[in-house]
# Entry
Amino acid sequence: MKRLCYALDLKDDPELIAKYEFWHKSENGWPEIRKSIIGAGVIDMQIYRTGNRLFMIMETEDGFRPEEKKAMDATNPKVKEWERLMARFQKPLPWAKRNEKWVLMEQIYGLW
# Structure
């Protein structure tokens, strides 16, 4: 199993942050998005927020490849629709590459 951690900012607006959280409640999430995440080899995914900064922790199958997931998403109309909706709330990190939303974090410490 692999663990990948990503960061992304939300627009610093309490109303937009509340709407983003609304869409991420289990009863409001789109089943097609959940299916695409699991189908790509993601075992568990959690998103945490502090202020307007988000942290996503993904536990994946060993063979998971982020670039393959990105290619699958690019051909999935429902994922593209979801991404357009989420773009209303998200703001790329200042050091994000062009067209990059979630930025892969580098682990700098481990207790074990």
User: Anything to note?
Assistant: The chain is about 35% helix and 25% strand.
